[in-house]
Design brief:
With 363 residues, this protein is of the alpha+beta class. The protein has 5 helices and 19 strands.
Length: 363
Amino acid sequence: MQSTPQQTSELKKSCINCGAELRYAPGTTELKCEYCGYKQDIPPPVEAFEELELKKYLDQLGAQSHSEQITMLHCKNCGANQHIEENYKSLHCVYCSMPLVVEDAYKEDWILPGAVLPFQLSQKEAHIIFKKWVNGLWWAPNKLKKATLDPQNTKGLYTPYWTFDANLFANYTGQRGEYYYVTKTVGSGKNRRTVRERKTRWYPASGSVSGFVDDTLIQASRQKSGVIPKKVSHWDLKKLETFHSGFLAGFVTEKYTIPLKDGHLNASREAEGIARNWARRDIGGDTQRVSSISMTLSDETFKHILLPVYISAYTFKNKRYNFFVNGQSGVISGQRPYSFWKIFFFVLFIVALIGTILFFANS
């Protein structure tokens, strides 16, 4: 892997017609001016994104290659680290909506993203999805539904992930279980009956499995709260584009806070789970036990990638609730508050209705 000079992102791009900020237009490869409609193509990549050799980075031999310097703000409330653009005069944390102090901005190096999955949904489309979801919630406070009227509460965020590739080889020992059935009589008198009971014969098993583990996806950021739910965390990684800062224009970018080394440990645990599943499949039979497994990973590579998600944060009775929309698929998930008074009056109505029915029934 050849070293590349340190680069500086150019995330603020101005319209050549009116000077306003150009923003990435979701679902396209264009930057667009929201004022005069001018469009500018994001240039196609010179080469496809590459997998980086893991060992060199873990040994800190390649720490300064494929890196860039960006401006960051740290949220003192929830701990999220977010990139800001020069044109922002004020900014609120996408996770908890607390104000971020621009004067606290600092410069920091990061491993340059190798790929980005561009937003396919606009903020307006994501807000419509969010609003429909909120309106369909039973027992939601009226204040929550009012909060969804402001699209500015829904913000686009590129969140960081590590992906790991490796050749996996593992030796295992275990047992193969085969079912058999015995017939026996249970009960007595009229309740006496014949039943078939399933049992298992166990046989020793051992062997080896191997294969290629592709794109193990590991979240690279950690907050005190506001964790993206699993329901939303499914993206089609085949649609990844070679990283270009133009895709980030107009969106907030979160910096990874889980180091590459820790991400690799998490990926290794995922790989062991994959190895165990391969071993069970290799053992065969009706059921399996894996007693021990010795796994080796080789030719390991990784990527730092950015994935799109829309976030809306809402505080109700001093408690924060986060809602997430996948910026590619539109899948939505989130926490929600309940209205005590709506539930109370509904229960009161049910009690009154039952009392009325009993009264007329007795009459």
